[in-house]
Amino acid sequence: MRKQITRAGKTPIWSQLRGQNNEGILLAVLIVLVVVMSIVSRDFLQISTLFAIIRSSIVPLIFALGVLLVIISGGIDVSFAAIAVFSAYATVTAQLTFAVDFGLIGSFLFAMVLGTLLGLVNGYIISKFRLPTLIVTLGTQGIFQGVLMTYVGSRYIADLPAGMASASTVNLVTLPTANGVALLHVMIIPAVVLTLAVSWLLNRTMFGRFIYAIGGDEESARRAGINVKSVQMRVYMIVGVMAAIGGVIYMVMGRSASPKELIGGELDIIAAVVLGGASIFGGYGSVKGTVLGVLLVQLINNSLILVGVPSAWQRAAVGVLLIVGVSIQAISAKRARKQVGVLPEETVK
C-alpha cells in the first residue's frame, strides 16, 4: 500500500482520516446517508431500524469476508452463494431424511465439511490449471446448483430440524420501543467472531501476507518462494467454510430451507467488498472497509424501501455503486503510477 508523506516524513492528516483503503471516506458517506434519511423519514432514526440493518447485514457480511480473501488474492468468486445454499440445504435434508438431529453446532460442522469440499473443487481447478477465477467459479456455480436440485432436493422445507429451529427465535438483545419490540438476533455473534478471525488472519499471520503478495504480483510471489497453489487452495477452502456458515445462518434466521435461495445476490456482496476499498485487481483490501461496505449497501437498500422505491431500482443502485467503486480504483491506480514515475520521493512503499 502506498502512503503519501510530507517532506518532514509525516503522513498528512487527510491521508490519516481517509485510511489506507479509503475507509474514512466510506464512513463519511455512511454518516451523510444516515443524516439524510433521518430528515426524509421520521421512522428511520430508531433502534428497530438499526437492528433491522444489522440483521440484514449478518449473512452478507460473512459472504463478503470470504469474497474479500479471494479479491485480495487477485481472483473473483461468484460461486459462494451456490456453496452456501448447497451446504445448508444438504445439511437440513440429511437430518430430515435419516430422522436425526445434529443439533445447532453439529449442523454447522456438517455444513462446513461440505463447504470445504466444494471450496476445494474451486481451489484445485484454479491452482492446478491456472484458469481465470471468474470463469471457473461461474462454471462451478452452475454445477453445484444443478447437483443440488437433481440429487439432494428441490422442495421448499418449512420445518427445520429441532436443533436449528431452536435458534431461529433466539435474540441477543430485546428492547421495547414505541412501535413494538426491537430484536437483535443471536446470529450476530458468529458474524462478529468471523470478522475478528479474518482480520487476525490478514494482519497477524504469514498466510495473510502471502494472500496480499499473490494478489499484488503472483509471479513475484512465486519467485519469492511462496507456494502459490497451496495458498490459493486454502483460500477457496476457507471461502467454502464461510459460505457454508452463512448459508446455515440464513436458513436458521429464515426458519426454512429452499434450494433456490441466495443465488442471484452475488452482485451486492462483490459491490460491498469493492466499495470497502478492496482492489478488483488484487493486493489491497481490509476487513474494516468490507464491514463499512456491507453496511452501506444494506443501508441503501433499507433506505430505498423506506422511501418507496421499487425493489428493481435497488439492484440498479448497487450496480451503479459497483461501477463507481471500480472507476475510483482505476483512477487512483493511474494517479499512483504517475506519482511514482514523476515524484518517487513523494511516496513510500
SSE layout:
Blueprint: E1 3-4, H1 13-18, H2 23-40, H3 47-72, H4 80-97, H5 103-129, H6 133-152, H7 162-165, E2 171-177, E3 180-185, H8 188-204, H9 206-216, H10 218-223, H11 228-254, H12 266-275, H13 287-306, H14 311-342, E4 347-348
Helix pairs in contact: 2-13, 3-8, 3-9, 3-11, 3-12, 3-13, 4-5, 4-6, 4-11, 5-6, 5-11, 8-9, 9-11, 12-13, 12-14, 13-14
Cα distance, first to last residue? 6 Å
N-to-C series of helices and strands: EHHHHHHHEEHHHHHHHE
Number of strands: 4
- The biggest beta sheet, please? 2 strands, antiparallel
Strand content: under 5%
Count of helical regions: 14
Cα shape: globular
**Stretches where pLDDT falls below 50 for ≥5 residues?**
1-8, 342-349
State the share of residues found in helices, binned by percent. 55-70%
Structural class: mainly alpha
Strand order, largest beta sheet? 1-4
Mean pLDDT: 88
Radius of gyration: 21 Å
Provide a brief overview of the structure.
Its main location: membrane. This protein is about 70% helix and about 5% strand. The protein is mainly α and about 350 residues long.
Task: List the defining traits of the structure above.
14 helices, two-stranded antiparallel ribbon, disordered N terminus, mainly alpha, about 70% helix, disordered C terminus
